[in-house]
Design goal:
The protein is of the alpha+beta class. The chain has a single domain (2-18, 25-152), classed as PAS domain (Beta-Lactamase), CATH 3.30.450. It has helices at residues 2-16, 28-45, 47-55, 103-112, and strands at residues 63-64, 67-68, 70-73, 78-81, 117-125, 132-142, 145-152. A hairpin with a 2-residue loop joins β1 and β2 (67-68). α2 packs antiparallel against α3. The longest helix has 18 residues, at 28-45.
Protein backbone atom coordinates (compact mmCIF):
# COMPACT_ATOMS: atom_id res chain seq x y z
CA UNK A 1 0.00 0.00 0.00
CA UNK A 2 2.87 2.36 0.83
CA UNK A 3 4.40 1.75 -2.61
CA UNK A 4 1.07 2.49 -4.31
CA UNK A 5 0.69 5.71 -2.32
CA UNK A 6 4.22 6.74 -3.30
CA UNK A 7 3.39 6.04 -6.94
CA UNK A 8 0.23 8.16 -6.71
CA UNK A 9 2.14 11.06 -5.14
CA UNK A 10 4.89 10.83 -7.74
CA UNK A 11 2.32 10.67 -10.50
CA UNK A 12 0.55 13.76 -9.26
CA UNK A 13 3.88 15.59 -9.28
CA UNK A 14 4.53 14.50 -12.85
CA UNK A 15 1.09 15.63 -13.98
CA UNK A 16 1.66 19.07 -12.51
CA UNK A 17 4.76 19.45 -14.69
CA UNK A 18 3.01 18.63 -17.98
CA UNK A 19 3.12 21.40 -20.57
CA UNK A 20 -0.30 22.84 -21.39
CA UNK A 21 -1.62 21.78 -24.78
CA UNK A 22 1.06 19.19 -25.42
CA UNK A 23 -0.32 16.31 -27.44
CA UNK A 24 2.51 14.69 -29.36
CA UNK A 25 4.16 11.73 -27.70
CA UNK A 26 7.76 10.63 -27.89
CA UNK A 27 8.62 7.51 -29.89
CA UNK A 28 10.51 4.37 -28.96
CA UNK A 29 13.42 5.40 -31.18
CA UNK A 30 13.55 8.82 -29.50
CA UNK A 31 13.56 7.22 -26.02
CA UNK A 32 16.46 4.96 -27.01
CA UNK A 33 18.36 7.89 -28.52
CA UNK A 34 17.78 10.06 -25.43
CA UNK A 35 19.00 7.26 -23.16
CA UNK A 36 22.12 6.74 -25.27
CA UNK A 37 22.83 10.49 -25.24
CA UNK A 38 22.46 10.47 -21.46
CA UNK A 39 24.88 7.53 -21.09
CA UNK A 40 27.42 9.33 -23.28
CA UNK A 41 26.92 12.59 -21.34
CA UNK A 42 27.65 10.86 -18.03
CA UNK A 43 30.85 9.35 -19.48
CA UNK A 44 31.98 12.65 -21.01
CA UNK A 45 31.02 15.08 -18.20
CA UNK A 46 30.77 13.04 -15.01
CA UNK A 47 27.80 12.14 -12.85
CA UNK A 48 27.38 15.45 -11.02
CA UNK A 49 27.15 17.61 -14.13
CA UNK A 50 25.06 15.03 -15.99
CA UNK A 51 22.52 14.65 -13.20
CA UNK A 52 22.12 18.43 -13.01
CA UNK A 53 21.46 18.58 -16.76
CA UNK A 54 18.95 15.71 -16.60
CA UNK A 55 17.02 17.68 -13.95
CA UNK A 56 17.14 20.95 -15.92
CA UNK A 57 13.84 21.31 -17.84
CA UNK A 58 15.42 23.92 -20.11
CA UNK A 59 17.81 21.28 -21.48
CA UNK A 60 15.89 20.01 -24.51
CA UNK A 61 18.43 17.25 -25.12
CA UNK A 62 17.09 15.47 -22.03
CA UNK A 63 13.51 16.85 -21.97
CA UNK A 64 11.24 16.49 -24.98
CA UNK A 65 7.43 16.38 -24.67
CA UNK A 66 6.74 13.33 -22.45
CA UNK A 67 10.34 12.07 -22.70
CA UNK A 68 12.84 12.65 -19.90
CA UNK A 69 15.83 10.86 -18.38
CA UNK A 70 15.88 8.95 -15.10
CA UNK A 71 18.83 7.23 -13.42
CA UNK A 72 18.99 4.61 -10.66
CA UNK A 73 21.87 2.84 -9.03
CA UNK A 74 21.94 -0.97 -9.03
CA UNK A 75 20.44 -1.02 -5.51
CA UNK A 76 17.31 0.85 -6.59
CA UNK A 77 18.17 4.36 -5.39
CA UNK A 78 17.04 7.17 -7.67
CA UNK A 79 20.09 9.34 -8.37
CA UNK A 80 18.59 11.59 -11.08
CA UNK A 81 15.11 12.25 -12.37
CA UNK A 82 14.15 14.54 -15.22
CA UNK A 83 10.78 15.68 -13.89
CA UNK A 84 10.51 14.76 -10.23
CA UNK A 85 13.39 15.81 -7.96
CA UNK A 86 11.49 14.40 -4.94
CA UNK A 87 12.42 10.91 -6.15
CA UNK A 88 16.17 11.59 -6.00
CA UNK A 89 17.93 9.98 -3.05
CA UNK A 90 15.07 7.58 -2.35
CA UNK A 91 15.40 3.81 -2.55
CA UNK A 92 12.54 2.83 -4.84
CA UNK A 93 13.35 -0.87 -5.13
CA UNK A 94 9.91 -1.78 -3.78
CA UNK A 95 8.00 0.69 -6.00
CA UNK A 96 5.13 -1.07 -7.79
CA UNK A 97 2.64 0.07 -10.35
CA UNK A 98 -1.12 -0.19 -9.82
CA UNK A 99 -1.08 -3.80 -10.98
CA UNK A 100 1.65 -4.81 -8.54
CA UNK A 101 4.59 -4.93 -10.98
CA UNK A 102 7.93 -3.99 -9.41
CA UNK A 103 9.18 -1.17 -11.63
CA UNK A 104 12.73 -0.53 -10.41
CA UNK A 105 13.40 -4.22 -9.75
CA UNK A 106 12.45 -4.81 -13.39
CA UNK A 107 14.91 -2.11 -14.48
CA UNK A 108 17.64 -3.85 -12.46
CA UNK A 109 16.76 -7.25 -13.98
CA UNK A 110 17.05 -5.86 -17.52
CA UNK A 111 20.27 -3.96 -16.72
CA UNK A 112 21.73 -7.13 -15.16
CA UNK A 113 20.97 -9.25 -18.23
CA UNK A 114 23.78 -10.18 -20.65
CA UNK A 115 22.65 -7.43 -23.06
CA UNK A 116 22.57 -4.86 -20.23
CA UNK A 117 19.71 -3.00 -21.90
CA UNK A 118 16.10 -3.37 -22.94
CA UNK A 119 12.48 -2.45 -22.35
CA UNK A 120 10.25 -2.72 -19.27
CA UNK A 121 6.48 -2.21 -19.47
CA UNK A 122 4.52 -0.89 -16.50
CA UNK A 123 1.64 1.43 -15.65
CA UNK A 124 2.61 5.02 -14.83
CA UNK A 125 0.90 8.43 -14.70
CA UNK A 126 1.20 10.18 -18.04
CA UNK A 127 2.22 13.82 -17.54
CA UNK A 128 0.31 14.88 -20.66
CA UNK A 129 -3.01 13.02 -20.36
CA UNK A 130 -2.96 12.94 -16.56
CA UNK A 131 -4.14 9.31 -16.69
CA UNK A 132 -2.35 6.14 -15.68
CA UNK A 133 -1.19 4.63 -18.98
CA UNK A 134 0.94 1.74 -20.11
CA UNK A 135 4.53 2.96 -20.28
CA UNK A 136 7.54 1.26 -21.81
CA UNK A 137 10.82 2.31 -20.23
CA UNK A 138 14.05 1.73 -22.11
CA UNK A 139 17.03 1.26 -19.79
CA UNK A 140 20.75 0.74 -20.30
CA UNK A 141 23.38 -0.18 -17.75
CA UNK A 142 26.34 2.15 -17.58
CA UNK A 143 28.81 1.01 -14.95
CA UNK A 144 26.94 1.00 -11.64
CA UNK A 145 24.02 3.01 -13.06
CA UNK A 146 20.79 2.29 -14.87
CA UNK A 147 19.95 5.09 -17.28
CA UNK A 148 16.56 5.28 -18.97
CA UNK A 149 13.78 7.10 -20.70
CA UNK A 150 10.32 5.91 -21.64
CA UNK A 151 7.30 6.23 -23.86
CA UNK A 152 3.61 6.09 -23.18
CA UNK A 153 1.69 3.59 -25.29
Amino acid sequence: MKALLSCAILGASLCALAPAGATEKGTAAEAVAMTQKAVAYIKDHGKEKAFAEFANPANTTFHDRDLYVYVYDMKGVSVAHGVNPKMVGRNLLELRDGEGKYIVKSFIDVASSPAGKGWVEYKWPNPITKQVDLKAGYVERSGDLIVGSGIYK
